[in-house]
Write a structure and sequence with these properties.
heterotetramer, A alpha/beta, B alpha+beta, C alpha/beta, D mainly beta, C: alpha/beta, TIM Barrel, Alpha-Beta Plaits, 9-stranded mixed sheet, 11 strands, 32% helix, globular, D: mainly beta, 3-stranded antiparallel sheet
């Protein structure tokens, strides 16, 4: 049935398809044959709800190659041991060149494989063993291999090692999974990369390493003094960097060799033969030497991304590709006219596809929280140059156009809006949103630059280079601004703050005394007592996460080790340190990701109004109702849902409480210090943690029951609870300061597609965005698919395979997410037709 | 017992199976009556390799022997595994398996140790 | 105390009722009774009761609270919610709107529609969206019902908005004596003016009154040189023929002044729920909503005569005349 | 004994004739590609299912 429909779609004209807003079919009809082939060739790597798609298998070649050399080098410095093992993988892992493709590099030995990073947490390794469907055939043999690998790595992974040095109470509470996410290791991480440095080429970096080593060896001839002693540890680190950089060059050469072999012995089509020779030349050139044209710069970039993902699970993709590749595009397309716009678009489109196809095994909690995708790969577009002038270029436009042609759910874009952005670029952003991609999300550049300066003291010129470190948090891409490791492992399930304040710190869901004992709420004499308890629970929750992640960060060079990342980090190359070593000049870019945050303001407001101001209910009644999960208290629950003030309605009663909570957190953020002695601001956002935590957060005074989805996140009002429309939502969100009251604040808006059709739609959106900027908000993202389409997609998923929705911080194909999340998205208030 | 010592036993229980050679056999063994099939057992949300907490019993309880001991007071719940033998536990209460194809999230009773538990679907 | 008026809703983020982002203030009470009326709750000049069948759990608390036996006995909620169900909670003929049932309802199924608000209460709410007006040339649109049915209150509301520097649209059906309407029109920034049918008899048939006064007033406004957008609801089998619009365009072209824009508003059925919440039958319930592309064809009749026309009346069309926004003095 | 170097899919490396790439055409349900696996020239290929005599 799906197929017969598809045939009719194909018979329709592009104009008709546009009128029906069937954007996937529009894309299919308007993109090049090459992009069409490559796009349809991608294996879906994100999980569907909780499971991987049929045909996706875990790559067992990679860990087996790795362990061969790893065990051979047992006892050497960890970075060196790892470098040997990685080099062995890069020299021997099967590689492949897909028909029609021009950009090389994949993590794993076949396109349908996802890689497994086994050095992070052995619990995750066990999870893979238990997982259905992803074990390669023959299953029995693979299970044997897996069991042996797991037996070896059990107790030897980064988190296993960390758990032994953590305070045991902290370890148990952290790993209860109730108070937040976190993998305090760079084994599951993400890192900003400075391409100004990297594009010097690996050979240039190798020369620099060589120079440093010689210099150091000279010094080591002196008497072993406290100044000289640390130098002994530096040499093996530099050696490790050399090994991986050289292996990276050889890895590229393997592609060059294969491309030449294909051109000479296999390919009969002269055009493709040309392409293969160009691929060979490209891979011989980069990453060894600096790129000279667009294909080389994209290829260099992708090799770096692939190599870092052989080293570790990089769950995000901090990047600013329009800025990095713009000059090469300009040279090839505008100046030398070596490439036509269409040819350039093919390369750009493939860059998106090559990124989209990367698959890394994620544990269940991450799959639930990031439904339908591999990681939060938010690429940064637009923005300003270090001197403050507009940085948008033709590549910005090319990426937006390519995104509409290939329609991948990952990577997505975050656009750095500023007052000098040209109308033509704004229109490109709008077209992507109108085509229902859910991206770019819009970021307020002046606000975020100020914010980056405020929290970490980056110089303003450096702050202006920022990219999204993950979904939301800006990080400079400079020598001392680059962030090597995911400090956001401090991810708080914030709804627990109010839950614990109401339960004397006890967590009935996991049957454990978690937070401090802040007293029986029945004894509280006024709202201030309750608020005081909330503050204590908030501080406790942040403290335990922050100190765990801080310890993980300090210990990472000892427990994990990053030879490749260190080799592309200028400050690590210069000092012979691990990139993650906080002592090498890192200014810090830590933040606590705040899941399920808004429930606090709504719950506090409900109690303040009903218990303390109006005395409509006693605290006893409220606690009884909560302990009963509202069962038997339905009338009362509805009263709390409907009649208590709710965030997002431009209502000062609750909005003031939100501001007050944020200010308490901000105060505390300055007391929490990261290993680079910088602050830990809060960043409210949810990805799809609101679904993951549904069964971990008990009943709350906003009327929520255990098991109900939490709010969809950041500072978005509860679904259906913003009764006054989008202007009121923006007004509420504008009541606090997006520079000093936190790190960044995620806001979802669903707008009606009919409202935004035509030129009038653009004018409306532009006026809306202008006001959004005036109000000083730092973020907003849009869902533009109507309810009818989403409901139809639930009924007939086959026909709607390609409908993309914005989940929260990222986009996903609607059919890939669980029913519960789907319902939650439909429930998000559609901002009306006016 | 110091605070650290008290929590150490919980931490050790949590990390216990790591670093031990288990092979295929230990991993594949799922007793007919086991924690993973009990409604009192709550799968840990940090990982999904089959670790969980008991909603009733506290740390210090001992259920996988002929003469179980039950501790009902304390700060931390008993940490156990989906394939821990629960045939002697008097708090065992068999749960309904709801989500059988694994595409649904956040089902409180969702068995995450999917492959091994699958044989109990029938 | 300031005088108040009954308001059914203050709707922010309205984008089809004048230029830019607007806040619509719906005053309750209207002298006409158009059969297609999309805001049936604004017709009666007194508070009414909404019964929202989907929220009702049929607990019977309203029945116990009612002193006049004007509440229908509970039936199974599923029965009551069925598409074809004619069940309604309130017997309108027995109800004296004492609102005791609304007080008794804990599920939000019974609701009062029509709240008395003062000029300042309204304007405080309107003013909340000032940043949006500034960036879009928007402001307040006073609508209804028929706002001119409350001439004194309306004059004060306009005066208040003016002193706060808010752009004001008067959305009127024009069924009002000129000596009342004229000064009101003069005091606002622009007028949204309804035209339903040129033939008075056909007008009376669907609207409940002839059109003479309305057409006269239209000419009056044009003579006064006030900015005006003419809005024509297009209703199937009533005023949706090509011939009719050719004639209408000719007529409008001969009026003594310029109409800045004509909005053709396709008939839709989104208001269906409101009729059922009020317990009213709606004669057009079965009618099909119009395909907006039909309206685009009719627009050509006006374009041929040089009018700026929109389908749907967006405040963000290219040719939308911007009201501009003044800041408070 | 058949070895890798006797196979049509074997391409020796220029810098080292004892080693080379085993190049294979693969068509999976979604895409077609050429795959290269590094092998020793003298590796036993008697059990290789994709061995094609040169």
């Amino acid at each position: 049935m799906g197929q017969s429909t598809a045939r009719t779609e194909k018979e329709s004209s592009v104009e008709e398809l546009k009128n029906r807003r069937e954007w996937w079919f529009v894309a299919e009809k308007t993109r090049s044959k090459r992009l069409d082939y490559l796009r349809k060739g991608v294996w879906k790597k994100g999980a569907i709800g909780g499971n991987y798609a049929p045909g996706i298998k875990i790559d067992l070649t990679f860990p087996q190659l790795f362990i061969d050399k790893w065990q051979e080098h047992e006892g050497e410095a960890i970075m060196l041991q790892k470098a040997h093992a990685l080099a062995h993988v890069l020299d021997n892992i099967p590689i492949f060149i897909t028909d029609n493709s021009q950009i090389m590099g994949y993590i794993g030995s076949a396109p349908h494989n996802i890689v497994w990073h086994w050095q992070g947490i052995s619990m995750v390794n066990e999870e893979i063993y238990n997982e259905e469907g992803i074990i390669p055939e023959p299953e029995e043999e693979s299970l044997e291999i897996l069991a042996n690998l797991n037996d070896y790595w059990g107790g030897r992974t980064a988190v296993d090692k960390l758990a032994r040095v953590l305070d045991p109470e902290d370890a148990v509470k952290f790993m209860s999974g109730a108070i937040g996410w976190g993998t305090p290791t760079s084994a599951a991480t993400y890192s900003t990369k400075d391409f100004d440095y990297i594009f010097k080429g690996f050979e240039a970096i190798l020369a620099e390493v060589e120079e440093r080593m010689e210099e150091t060896e000279e010094k080591l001839q002196g008497n072993p003094s406290p100044e000289i002693l640390p130098l002994y540890d530096k040499l093996p680190r530099w050696e490790a960097m050399q090994i991986v950089l050289e292996a990276g060059i050889r890895y590229a050469e393997r592609y060059a060799r294969l491309a030449r072999t294909l051109a000479e012995h296999f390919e009969s089509d002269p055009e493709r033969r040309e392409e293969l020779l160009r691929i060979a030349e490209t891979c011989e050139r980069v990453p060894a030497k600096p790129p000279r044209n667009l294909q080389e710069s994209l290829q260099f970039d992708h090799f770096v991304q692939v190599l870092s993902r052989y080293e570790t699970f990089e769950g995000a993709w901090p990047h600013r590709p329009d800025y990095i590749h713009g000059p090469y595009y300009d040279k090839d397309v505008n100046q030398d006219k070596r490439l036509s716009k269409e040819e350039a678009l093919d390369l750009v489109g493939e860059h998106l596809i090559r990124t989209h196809e990367v698959g890394i095994f994620a544990p269940k909690w991450a799959r639930e929280g990031l439904q339908g995708i591999t990681g939060t790969w938010v690429w940064t577009m637009g923005g300003v140059k270090p001197d403050g002038s507009d940085a948008c270029n033709d590549m910005t436009v090319a990426y937006m156009q390519a995104a509409r042609l290939v329609r991948v759910s990952n990577p997505t874009f975050g656009f750095r809006w500023h007052p000098k952005v040209k109308d033509e670029v704004m229109r490109e952003c709008f077209e992507c949103i109108r085509h229902g991609l859910g991206y770019p999300s819009m970021r307020n550049d002046p606000v975020l630059v100020a914010n980056t300066v405020h929290w970490y003291g980056h110089p303003v010129e450096e702050a202006r280079t920022w990219v999204h470190q993950a979904c939301m948090s800006p990080c400079p891409t400079t020598k001392y601004g680059c962030q090597p490791m995911r400090m956001a492992s401090a991810t708080a399930n914030c709804a627990k703050m109010i839950e614990y304040a109401l339960h004397d710190g006890y967590d009935p869901v996991v049957n454990m005394q978690m937070g401090p004992k802040t007293g029986d709420p029945r004894e509280f004499k006024d709202f201030e007592d309750l608020f005081g308890a909330w503050v204590k629970q908030m501080e406790w929750l942040r403290n335990i996460l922050v100190r765990t992640v801080n310890l993980g960060r300090v210990k990472d060079p000892e427990f994990f080790g990053r030879p490749f990342l260190s080799a592309i980090y200028e400050r690590a190359v210069e000092t012979g340190t691990d990139a993650c070593d906080p002592s090498n000049g890192d200014r810090g870019n830590a933040w606590v990701t705040g899941f399920t945050w808004v429930e606090n303001a709504d719950s506090l407001a409900a109690i303040k109004k009903f218990v303390y101001d109006e005395k409509k209910y006693t605290m006893d009644e409220v606690l009884d109702a909560l302990n009963a999960n509202w069962v038997g208290y339905e009338e009362m629950r509805l009263d709390f849902v409907k009649n208590a003030p709710k965030w997002g309605n431009d209502d000062d009663y609750v909005d003031d409480l939100m501001v007050r909570c944020l200010r308490e957190v901000s105060r505390h953020s300055k007391e929490n210090r990261c290993p680079s002695n910088n602050t830990w601001p809060l960043l409210p956002e949810n990805v799809s943690g609101n679904i993951h935590y549904a069964n971990l957060v008990g009943a709350l005074p906003n009327g929520r029951r255990l098991g109900d989805a939490l709010y969809d996140g950041g500072i978005s009002p509860g679904p259906g609870l913003d009764k006054k429309g989008p202007t009121a939502v923006l007004k509420s969100c504008g009541k606090f300061d997006h520079v000093t009251d936190g790190r960044a604040f995620l806001l979802n808006q669903r707008l009606s597609p009919t409202q935004l059709s035509g030129e009038k739609g653009y004018q409306l959106w532009k006026a809306y965005m202008k006001t959004w900027a005036d109000l000083g908000l730092d973020h907003v993202q849009f869902n533009m698919v109507d309810d009818a389409t989403l409901r139809a997609a639930q009924k007939d998923p086959e026909k709607y395979q390609e409908v993309i929705v914005r989940v929260a911080g990222y986009s996903a194909h609607f059919v890939d997410i669980s029913r519960k999340t789907q319902d939650n998205i439909i429930q998000r208030t559609v901002q009306g037709l006016g | 017992m110091s605070r650290r010592d008290k929590w150490k036993s919980a931490r050790d229980a949590m990390m216990a199976p790591l670093g031990k050679t288990k092979g295929v056999k230990t991993r594949e063994s799922v007793p007919e009556v086991c924690c993973g099939k009990c409604e009192m057992w709550f799968e840990n949300a940090y990982s999904s390799e089959g670790r969980g907490t008991c909603r009733v019993l506290k740390m210090g309880s001992e259920i996988h022997s002929d003469k179980p001991t039950y501790v009902l007071e304390g700060d931390a719940g008993l940490i156990s595994y989906f394939n821990m033998d629960a045939s002697h536990c008097s708090y065992f209460s068999k749960m309904e398996l709801i989500d059988t194809d694994g595409t649904e999230c956040s089902d409180p009773l969702f068995r995450r140790a999917l492959r091994q538990m699958k044989k109990f679907n029938e | 105390m300031q005088p108040g008026a009954l308001v059914t809703e203050i709707q922010r983020f309205a984008v089809n009722d004048g230029p830019g982002f607007r806040t619509n203030v719906f005053l309750k009470g209207c002298p006409l009774s158009c059969r297609w009326c999309h805001n049936p709750e604004t017709i009666a000049p007194y508070p009414e009761i909404y019964w929202k069948r989907r929220s009702c759990v049929q607990c019977g608390a309203c029945l116990d609270a009612c002193p006049r036996d004007a509440v229908n006995a509970p039936i199974h909620p599923v029965e009551a919610q069925k598409e074809e169900s004619t069940y309604h909670k309130i017997f309108r003929e027995r109800c004296d709107l004492c609102m005791k049932c609304v007080d008794a309802c804990r599920y939000g199924a019974l609701e009062i529609v029509g709240t008395e608000l003062t000029v300042n209460e309204i304007l405080d709410e309107v003013e909340r969206d000032r940043p949006f007006y500034d960036n879009s040339g928007g402001g307040m649109t006073v609508s209804g019902g028929e706002p001119t049915a409350h001439p004194e209150f309306l004059a004060q509301l306009i005066e208040g908005a003016r002193s706060r520097g808010i752009h004001i649209c008067l959305d009127t059906n024009g069924y009002c004596q000129w000596d009342v309407l004229g000064p009101l029109v003069q005091s606002v920034d622009m007028v949204l003016y309804d035209l339903k049918h040129l033939d008075s008899a056909r007008h009376a048939e669907m609207v409940g009154a002839g059109n003479e006064l309305i057409l006269e007033n239209l000419a009056g406004i044009l003579r006064a040189g006030k900015e005006i957008w003419l809005r024509q609801p297009i209703v199937p089998d009533y005023n949706d023929s090509w011939e009719y619009h050719v004639k209408a365009a000719e007529f409008l072209g001969q009026l003594p002044g310029r109409i800045q824009r004509i909005d053709l508003l396709p008939f839709h059925t989104w208001c269906e729920d409101k009729y059922s919440w009020l317990g009213l039958d709606w004669s057009l319930r079965a009618a099909e909503p119009m395909d907006p592309s039909m309206v685009e064809i009719l627009a050509e009749a006006y374009q041929a005569r040089g009018f700026a026309v929109t389908a749907g009346g967006s405040g963000f069309e290219d040719n939308a005349v911007r009201g501009g926004c003044r800041h408070a003095p | 004994m058949a070895t890798c170097k006797d196979c049509k899919g074997f391409f020796a490396r220029e810098d080292d004739q004892d080693r080379g790439d085993c190049v294979m055409r693969v068509t999976d349900p979604r895409q077609a590609y050429y795959k290269a696996v590094p092998v020793e020239a003298d590796k036993d290929a008697s059990k290789c299912s994709s061995f094609r005599k040169r």
